[in-house]
Amino acid sequence: MNFCSHCGSNQLDCKVPAGDHVARYVCQVCGTVHYVNPKMVVGCLVVHEERVLLCRRAIEPRYGFWNLPTGFLESGETVEEGAIRETWEEARARVKVERLHSVYSLPHCDQIIIHFVAQLQETGIEAGPESLEVNFFAETEIPWDDMAFSSHRFALERYFENRLKPDKQTYLGSSCLRTS
Amino acid sequence: MNFCSHCGSNQLDCKVPAGDHVARYVCQVCGTVHYVNPKMVVGCLVVHEERVLLCRRAIEPRYGFWNLPTGFLESGETVEEGAIRETWEEARARVKVERLHSVYSLPHCDQIIIHFVAQLQETGIEAGPESLEVNFFAETEIPWDDMAFSSHRFALERYFENRLKPDKQTYLGSSCLRTS
């Protein structure tokens, strides 16, 4: 950040505002405090006939490596809506979210990744513009060494570890208040 | 947003960038795309002797109403660290996170609220600067009509509904990769 997005001044000071405890960019002209918050990343672990849907990345970072369909949550979306949209965009899969599966923090790059377990609602899948190919994999077929991200590997490992323990898989509370 | 925070230009266009599907502020001078993402809010449902910790708000919005200790996740934090920090700031309670409890989307104001069930690590509590008072409440004592936010009410209702069903309360996956 070089300029204040409110008044256009370049007189930004990085300091702890009164009553706060974290350094922020504060405009010395108009007083606007510029908060920087972690970003949410959401996706689905789509299960079909005991196989999991993976996409091979057609984009950087990690071009050519595999991931669960996952991407940045957009303004105006619930976490479930974002996960369903990303699954359509990357794998042209129409899914229904079943339950929350994992939450993974990446504090060094300010990202929080949430994965849901989801089921196919229609049988077709196809590579979207961000994928080279998409496919379903049984546990023994997962390309573990070619996974793009630790958070996706974590979600997969937890899924296969726990899939035979249904009493350990119930997630209680996810809801949404939409007032507009 | 009135000015580009990268180059200071006021020539911002609200349009869908190439390869995207959502309108963004795009600087017509330097080309920077300004993404606006939902913010994460994290907090704890602290349980002690079958009572839950609530704080009466000393700040707007909803001054004087009750909430679970909860606030915005900061850069560099895991979701659990943010929830523990907020619990200290609002109620001077030292807690240990036990499990994820609820995820609540507020798409109309771009917030996602995550609550964890937590346990006290030290017995003392005290109102922090953002609280008028703090106290533990049994289910029959909760000031339901004076709760500040629907997301906190949701978390409390789910907790009391399900506390006698331990097999329904196990959350599987929460982890963190910290590389710096």
Which features characterize this protein?
Nucleoside Triphosphate Pyrophosphohydrolase; mainly beta; homodimer; 2 domains; 11 strands; three-stranded antiparallel sheet; Ubiquitin Ligase Nedd4, Chain: W; 180 residues
Describe the 3D structure.
2 copies of one chain form a homodimer. Chain A is mainly beta. Chain A folds into 2 domains: 1-36, Ubiquitin Ligase Nedd4, Chain: W (Single Sheet), CATH 2.20.70.10; 39-174, Alpha-Beta Complex (Nucleoside Triphosphate Pyrophosphohydrolase), CATH 3.90.79.10. Chain A has 2 helices and 11 strands. In chain A, strands 4, 5, 6, 7, 8, 9 and 10 form a 7-stranded mixed sheet that branches. In chain A, a hairpin with a 2-residue loop joins β4 and β5. The longest helix of chain A has 13 residues, at 79-91. Chain A starts with 11 loop residues before the first strand and ends with a strand. The model of chain A is unreliable at 169-176 (pLDDT under 50). Chains A, B: It comes from Catalinimonas alkaloidigena. Chains A, B: It holds the Pfam family NUDIX. Chains A, B: This is ADP-ribose pyrophosphatase YjhB, NUDIX family. Chains A, B: Residues 37-160 form the Nudix hydrolase domain. Chains A, B: InterPro entries: NUDIX_hydrolase-like_dom_sf, NUDIX_hydrolase_dom, Nudix_N.
